Prior knowledge:
The complex is a heterodimer. By secondary structure, chain A is of the alpha+beta class. Chain A contains 9 helices and 18 strands. In chain A, a hairpin with a 2-residue loop joins strand 13 and strand 14 (283-285). In chain A, helix 2 (132-141) runs parallel beside helix 3 and helix 6 crosses helix 8. The N and C termini of chain B lie far apart (41 Å). The chains are: A alpha+beta, B alpha/beta.
Amino acid sequence: MAExxxxxxxxxxxxxxxxxxxxxxxxxxVKTGDLLAEIETDKANMEFESPEEGVLLYVGLEAxxxxxxxxxxxxxxxKGEDVEAxxxxxxxxxxxxxxxxxxxxxxxxxxAAAPVATxxxxxxxxxxxxxxxxxxxxxxxGIDLSAVQGTGPEGRVVKKDIESFKGSxxxxxxxxxxxxxxxxxxxxxxxxxxxxxxxxxxxTAPHFYLTMDIDMDNAIRDRKALxxxxxxDGRKVxxxxxxxxxCALALVKHPKVNSQWTDTHIVYKGDINVGMAVAVQxxxxxxxxxxxxxxxxxxxxxxxxxxxxKAKEGKLQPAEMDGNTFTVSNLGMAGIESFTSIINSPxxxxxxxxxxxxxxxxxxGEIVVxxxxxxxxxxxxxxxxxxxxxxxxxxxxxxxxxxLVYFATIx
Amino acid sequence: xxxxxxxxxLNEAMSEEMRTDKxxxxxxxxxxxYNGAYKVSKGMLDEFGPERVIDSPISELGFAGIAVGASxxxxxxxxxxxxxxxxxxxxxxIINHAAKMLQMSGGQFNCPIVFRGGNGTAxxxxxxxxxxxxxxxxxxxxxxxxxxxxxxxxxGLLKSAIRDNDPVLFxxxxxxxxxxxxxxxxxxxxxxxxxxxVKEGTDCTIVTFGKILKVAQAAAEEMEKEGxxxxxxxxxxxxxxxxxxxxxxxxxxxxxxVVEESFPFGxxxxxxxxxxxKHAFDYLDAPVRRVTQSDTPFPFSPTLxxxxxxxxxxxxxxxxxxxxx
Lengths: 411, 325
C-alpha cells in the first residue's frame, strides 16, 4: 500500500513550505532516512528525510513551489502502483494548486473527473489579444504584451510582432525610451514571514518609543580592557555584545519588561533570552541567545558570533530562533544615529541601537570630546507602561556607562 | 526503379501475402471472374483458384459477416468493397462484430480481416457515392484505418495490414488506381501508425492523407514560389494516429492546416486539432485551420463539385490565414 508523505510542520509558525530542492526523482527507490528534499520554511532551509521506504511514485509539487502543511508532499509505494486513486481520495484537498508533474501522461479527461484546481497565471497582459506562442515568447523575453502593436486579426499580437518588437526596442530610435523593465520577484518564505509578523506586531501592539543617550567613554575603555584580556584566546567582544549583556542584566531588575501580552494574561517570562536582529541575503532573522543574563560576556559573545554566522549562511535551525523574550536591533555600524524598531512579537520590547558618535561634552567643567550612543526602546503599551520602560532604560544606562563593574556584580 | 500503377501495387501486396500464407483469401463483388471492378485483382483467380478468390453476391452485410466468421475460425480474409459507400451496408458486421469480437470474447477470437475498397469522391458520382469514411470507422475502438496516397505506400501498408491480427480498414480511391509510382521489386513493409513527412518546412505544417495529398502538395509548391517553407505530412494511418509527428512539426512551424476529403463536423481534422491544442498550445501562433469537403451532400454538377471538394486555392487561402499573410 502506498504511503502518503505530507508536508511536515517544521516550526510552530510554519503554515506552508517550499520544496527548494528534490533529492530524489519519481521512480527512485527511497530508504527510510534518505534525504528526500530540502524544505524552506518561514525560518530556515531544512533537510527532510524520508520517514518511509519505497519507490517515489509521485511528488505533489515541483521544486520552487509552495504547499500548505499537511498537503501531499510525495507518495511512496511499490513500483507501478496507481497513485490516482490515492490522489482522488485526497480530493486534491490541501494539495498544491501548482500543477503536479505527472510522471506519465494523464488519461484523457472524463467529464466526471473531479475538477482540478488551477491557479490562473497572473496575466500581466490584461486583456491583450495574443497568440499562445506570442504570449510565451513575450514572457520569455520579458516583453510587456500591452506595449506590442498586434498585426493579426483584431490586433492580435503574433509571433512576428514579438520578433520585430525586440528589433525596434534595440534599434536606432532617437526617442528616449526607458528600457529597464519592472521586475516582479515572488515572495520568498522569509519575505512573507517578515511581512506577516511585523504587520501583525505593528498593527496590534500599540507602540511607544523611549530614547536615551548613553555616555560610551567607559564602555570603550572596558571593551578595550576585555579584549586585551581575551586576545590570547583569539576572542573579541563587540559593542553589540556589551549592549546585549547590559540589556539582559537590566531585565533581571525589570521583569515587567521581560514580558509577553496574550489575550487573557500578561506573561512575565522566567528566562531572559535576548534575540538579535541579523541582516541576511534578502531579509533578516532573529537568532536568540538563551539565558543571556547568566552567560558570561565572553561566552555570550562567542555564541552571538556563531549564531550570526549561521544566520548569514541560512543554516539557523528553527529552535535557534525561538523563545526570545527581548530583542536588540543594531544599526550603529551603518552610521544610523537613532531609529525605532518594530517589536519582535511575542516579546514586549525591542531596543534599537544607534552609532557611537563623537560629541562635545562637558566634563568637570570643561568641554571635551565625548562618545555618545542613542538607544530607542519600542514598548508594547498593553504590557509595558512608559514609567516601566523608562526605569528599565535608566538601569540600562547605568550599566552601559560602567559595564565591567556591573557585569561583575549583577547576576 | 520500375514504376507500376496503384492497382498493381495492391495486387502485388495481396498476391505476395497469399503465396506465403494459404489462410489468406480474397472475397468481394466481381473480384474473380471479372478481375475486379477496378482490375485490382487481375490474374488472381488464375493464380489462386476459385477457393481463394471468391465472387460474392451483391450483399455487403452478408459477405462481411462471412469474413468475420472465417477469421474467427483461423482464416485471414481480404474483403473488397467496390466502394466504401457500399460498405455502409456492412457497417454492422464491421463495427459491431469485427471491431468488438476480441474484447467480447475475452481475448479468445481476433478478427484478422482487411476490408478494402475505394473511398471518397471520384468525379460525378453524386451524393451517395462521394463520401469519405475514415472519421466514421476510426471513431470505433478495435478498428485500424489506413489511407495510402501513392503506389509505394499502398503496397507496403497493405502487406502490413494483411499481417495485422486486428481488423484493418484500407481506404483507396477510384481516382488513384491508375496513378503510377516507383515501387521496388524487393519486398518491404511500411509500419501501421507512422506518418510520413513528405516535405520538410519551417513556416507552416499541412497534415493530410490519401489522394488529396496531391492538392496539399500543389498548394505547398505555390507557397514555396512566394518564399514560404511549408511542411507536408501524410498521415498514412488514420488510426492509430501518429500524434507525435504532428505535434513535433507544429512545435517547429507554429501553424497548422489540415486538409481532408470528409465533411467537416467531427472529422479527422477535429481530432488532430484537439491533440495539437492539447500538446502544443503554447506553440501555436494562429488558430488551426482546415480545408474539407463542403458541409453538404456532394453535388453532381461539375461546377459545384469543383467548389465542394478541397482545392489548391482553398488550401492556399488557409495557409495564408494561419501565416497572417
